[in-house]
Amino acid sequence: MKTGWTGPGKGIMQGWTDGYVTEIGYTYSFHPELQPWPMAEVLGKRSPISPGEPFDYCELGFGQGFSLALLAAANPQARFWGNDINTAHVEHARWLADGAGLSNLSVSSLGFADYAAADLPAFDIVALHGVWSWVGQQQRAEIVTFLDRHLKPGGLVYLGYNVLPGWAQYLPLRELMLAGAKRGQGGLSARIAGALALADRLRAHDAGYFRVNPTVTTRLEALMERPVDYLAHEYFNESWHPAYFTDVAQALASAGLRLVAQGRAADRWEEAALSEIILTVGGQTAADDPNFAELLRDYLTNRPFRRDLFIRDGSGDRAVPERRWAAVGHPRDLPRRATVATRPIDVPFDTAHAALTVLLSGPRTEADLLSGLDGEGQAALATLRALELIAPCLPDDGLSARQESCSRLNDLLLADAATADRMPALASPVTGGGIAVDRVGKLFLAALSSGTDPVLHAFHRLEKVGQRVLRDGKPITTADRHKAELGERWEVFAKRRLPILQMLGAAR
Ligand SMILES: C[S@@+](CC[C@H](N)C(=O)[O-])C[C@H]1O[C@@H](n2cnc3c(N)ncnc32)[C@H](O)[C@@H]1O
């Protein structure tokens, strides 16, 4: 049903369905937080899934479906479902499934309420990234109903959403842009451009709101650089409700869910670093009430986005297999100083470097890895995890089936890179997840597959579609400089990225 908004004197605004932007499709990102195996590693014996074994996974509001399709390719032993109300999104997900022969992926364009009423299996994992705070109260209630009906006892929910107080300063900016868009002319893209220009004019006239909130100007300048598909979905929905953690926790409690861990390694590291401060500030109340402690954490970090893992009552204890780690970054990527989430981390550089060097030749069990490291081994692994330079990986059983379906999807993605800059990751049969690869990297890999020169291949492909990579954020003006830039990128890619991609089975 098209509902749209009634703007003052402008009639119904088209381009929204159930208050959600549908005129412009969403971006084509890969979200690592959606990967099942890092979730299982964190949960240990409380995990509803065991490495490499079958499971049922559902993503609600999957956008273009790229993350979901990639996970289906990397885990052919499991079954994947998902819905999105935007039929163009669902068509794109089907295109990926058909092109890569993913018979374990089924997608639907039903809204949350109808999807909750559909005949579906009981899921081990239900994931929602960037959905909860972008839909209205009614849709949030429908999501809870879905979880109540379709999540197994002991099942896991991943929820990524905009959180308060991290967004507090920017709420009036969004309201201003929305008010401008409602009163604008033309299609959604034109209205969005008009709304940004309106905000910029106010800023230029020294509006008090911008003066007392200087970070809003920085944000507005950044927004003016972002593509319209991101802006449309991030800021121009009828519903946009950054939420306090305590309110989200209360809503999910009605489906028997409670917070069990942070979904991102960096946030878990920061959580440990902040735990003493939280007890000092919040006293016994924070010790007794984990939701209150989380609220304090959000004030301490002022982070804008949470990635939460909730678990449903009724989990049994599972045997925890030995941990195995794979490198997802090269030893040369290891920094001597780093910030994790919002805080600096001490990097035990030499030991961490030694661990990553060993992992270049392939995954190792944790015990095996530690036996070759000095006394800082545990700290080094924790740091590498927090920096997301290592990832848990799957047993070798089932590797060849995973490799086959990953290669089918990866071939499709390499071919897609010839004409489009989207879907910036490839599937890995080793981790059962994704690994970031940008468009130029995919063009280099396509050249290697067809036995052509990587630099010339990338150069000709890009020039053919009239596109050039940027240098220091600026366009390159001549073809010669473009070729030279691609040559430099190939040097780095061949040394640092290719060995990792090959070891992970994401490149041949
Ligand atoms: C901000 S986007 C996030 C997409 C994706 N999860 C991602 O992070 O890339 C929110 C998604 O929720 C979908 N959506 C909004 N309302 C919905 C509803 N009532 N039922 C199903 N999907 C909905 C939208 O079409 C959109 O793809």
Automatic annotation (TrEMBL):
Ranges where the Methyltransferase type domain occurs:
59-156
- Highest taxon, organism lineage: Bacteria
**InterPro entries documented for this protein:** Methyltransf_12, MeTrfase_reg_dom_prd, SAM-dependent_MTases_sf
Question: Residue limits of the Methyltransferase regulatory domain?
Answer: 229-312
Pfam families named among the record's database cross-references: Methyltransf_12 (PF08242), MethyTransf_Reg (PF10119)
What name does the UniProt record give this protein?
Methyltransferase
- Give the originating organism: Niveispirillum lacus
List the top taxonomic levels of the source. Answer: Bacteria, Pseudomonadati, Pseudomonadota, Alphaproteobacteria, Rhodospirillales
